[in-house]
Amino acid sequence: MLRTKVLSLVARSGPSRLMSTATKLTTVEVNDKTGIATLTMCRAPVNGLNLELLKDLKTSIDEIESNKSRGLILTSSNATIFSAGLDIMEMYNPEKERIRAFWTQLQEVWLSLYGSSVPTAAAINGHSPAGGCLLATSCEYRVMLPKFTIGLNETQLGIVAPKWFMSSFLSVLPQRQAERALNQGRMFSTEEALQIGLIDETATSKEEAVEKCAAFLGTFARVNPLARALTKQQFRAADLQQLENERKDDLEKFLFFINQPAVQKGLGIYLEGLKKKAKK
Ligand SMILES: CCCCC/C=C\C/C=C\CCC/C=C/C(=O)SCCNC(=O)CCNC(=O)[C@H](O)C(C)(C)COP(=O)(O)OP(=O)(O)OC[C@H]1O[C@@H](n2cnc3c(N)ncnc32)[C@H](O)[C@@H]1OP(=O)(O)O
């Protein structure tokens, strides 16, 4: 009942405005009636998370947070890809200083999205592997379009998802299923993701996905915002604190791991495979 009301409210909702942080790689549009901000990733061709996109994501999340938006919906401007995850080019034959800045920025984005005091939802309008899945599972609610895939496929690339990737995943799935999926590097179809609980709903179009996300965010309309935010943060505090405490160690572990010749070789082969597939 409430859900239907909120959905129709959203459908009738009024004009929106672009916020000042709108950049080339992300845009933020705030619906003036609902107060919900839609944060769109728009880095061609696949929303690969490189240093610049991560910086824009962090700036946009911070601005949404400080403008006291009623909610944040994360989505993509690409018709078939939510995000292809970390830009592998940042990790393959990396430049010393840049890769440090890259990983540090990824930590920042995760801390602010997973720890956001604003309610969050992801309208997953395309494939969402690895880092894409990290962003989606850092949100509180997920609506996904059919015929796409989502999951943490790191082991398929010969790399390892760090502890905090697992934290987001574990905030959505029970440990037994999460552990198996990560060990397998399993990508779930939309239907499988719904069945296992990795996503909350499906939608037939991006517009419908955004509406369903807005309806979820609307369920908090009559809840005290401070009480809601403090409750959410208590659930997530231990995960967030763990990364805060281990940030330097986490960076050094990542650098050590990624610079191993066997890992570099594996990434090179994976990239080559992607490029061959793209040419077909
Ligand atoms: C105690 C132990 C240690 C603890 C841990 C310590 C350290 C941890 C170490 C490492 C952790 C790293 C975590 C990594 C997370 C990641 O996110 S890795 C990235 C994973 N992503 C993928 O595997 C996705 C790969 N891409 C695809 O599957 C597909 O591209 C697609 C997203 C499904 C889209 O398909 P399609 O529409 O057909 O597009 P194309 O495949 O043709 O791609 C277009 C071009 O984009 C390039 N590309 C695709 N994905 C990426 C990417 N992730 N990075 C860079 N580039 C990408 C692709 O090559 C095409 O390029 P060209 O047009 O050929 O130039």
From TrEMBL:
CDD domains: crotonase-like. GO terms for cellular component: mitochondrial matrix. It catalyses: (3Z)-octenoyl-CoA = (2E)-octenoyl-CoA; (2E)-tetradecenoyl-CoA = (3Z)-tetradecenoyl-CoA; (3Z)-decenoyl-CoA = (2E)-decenoyl-CoA; (3Z)-dodecenoyl-CoA = (2E)-dodecenoyl-CoA. It holds the Pfam family ECH_1. One of its GO terms (molecular function) is delta(3)-delta(2)-enoyl-CoA isomerase activity. Key enzyme of fatty acid beta-oxidation. Able to isomerize both 3-cis (3Z) and 3-trans (3E) double bonds into the 2-trans (2E) form in a range of enoyl-CoA species, with a preference for (3Z)-enoyl-CoAs over (3E)-enoyl-CoAs. The catalytic efficiency of this enzyme is not affected by the fatty acyl chain length. This is Enoyl-CoA delta isomerase 1, mitochondrial. It comes from Drosophila pseudoobscura pseudoobscura (Fruit fly). The lineage of its organism: Eukaryota, Metazoa, Ecdysozoa, Arthropoda, Hexapoda.
